[in-house]
């Protein structure tokens, strides 16, 4: 238990907001009470009202949190009050925190500890480090503080389910994590090498390798649930509009929920049909009671009724959730939004899509949504034409306020919303010319243009990996043929396609041009390991590690790929992410 024995007796516990949901999954209030926790407080910028003689703080290792504790301690000193103070840093303590304690003059007044919380199982195949700040800290600020934590989490899994004999990855952060992890493996080398691994293949990927997927609207059920209700630590709060009562319910969303398990990875257009069929089947099971004798009725009540009632309750909640999603999406004109996104992904009607974004901004639909669409336009077009960039930026600041100037700075710095340098607009000319000539001739033209302009990386990658499916007629969402179903058949997630290709090829051979367009930093096993059966089946269980966050759309896509290839993907992510979370991370200011 994280509450340490060095602070026996009654105590008040102050918890940082980000750690409340993870802690609740591990130790609820009654368990905390058993460990003499009297009252619980959220760490926030308010006067402390605690009357306890012992205060315990469970926080992330941030300077702002240490200063918060210092403020309480120094206020007590000024009032002549004596208490015991303990700070528990999770997942680890940093030297910077101790320096701030010294600067604030309270180093000798508090004791410090660590809660080495690295992995939270959200489901049978999903592990989260619950570090949403990882994305901003590393990709925007260049802060590498969490690298060793991810490496430790990998080593923990390696010691239990490894050894990991095939490790692939791409991205600067992925490479750093891999190198730190290898050092940990060498330090703790034991007889595990002789063990048959339960997970043999690992793939590490940086979030900035594929921004496009994270920026797209999610249309699988679990993704839409997250976009609409915001899933936190595997659970969601359903309000009265879903529960059809004056009460709210907190529901755990995982494979234990039989209804959710069957629809979580489905395209939303299939969900209502499934739920209505489920309701009819459930009613048929209830109707069986009518012809039963007393003995059969007794068995029915003791063995089946409880399960049917639970399933009925969950079914009602999911039907309510679907109705709520439909109302919100209809109000937002969701189909028109998806049409614009698909145009951006395919590179068609860019001018019309830009006009749609301008209208979105002018109508002040949502600051987060407007930013997301601007970023999607920028990333798919390899930056905005200077005239469009200035125009969209000016309209956005007029609609949502000049305080977003810093947001634009952050988005530019991280590569989500950039302005093309003079000459880069030639990529449009190049793409038109390439359609008129053979690939070989287009390659020569490309070389000629490269000295003047850089090609649109997403367009080039998309073409080489076939991310935009070419289908005759309508894409069959009920019987999908590939991972593109998670975006209505319009686009195959880049991150998932890279994993598929590398695992299929057993390395990066043949993907050199894709790697170049992705700015390199790829790695693969240095020594090829011989396998009895060099097919997908031999890989069985693959650990997909996302650094900077993973979306539910990517999880659904890789679950689909696993079924198709006869293997299973396990997911380890620094946190669950979405387009809204990414945009919000650019708005926040944390120390």
UniProtKB/TrEMBL annotation:
Membrane topology qualifier: Peripheral membrane protein
Coiled coil: none
A single Gene Ontology CC term: lysosomal membrane
Subcellular location: Late endosome membrane; Lysosome membrane
Record keywords, A-Z: Protein transport, Transport
A Pfam family recorded for this sequence: Sec1
InterPro entries for the chain: Sec-1-like_dom1, Sec-1-like_dom3a, Sec1-like, Sec1-like_dom2, Sec1-like_sf, VPS33_dom3b
GO biological process: protein transport; vesicle-mediated transport
Family: Belongs to the STXBP/unc-18/SEC1 family.
Name used for this protein in its record: Vacuolar protein sorting-associated protein 33B
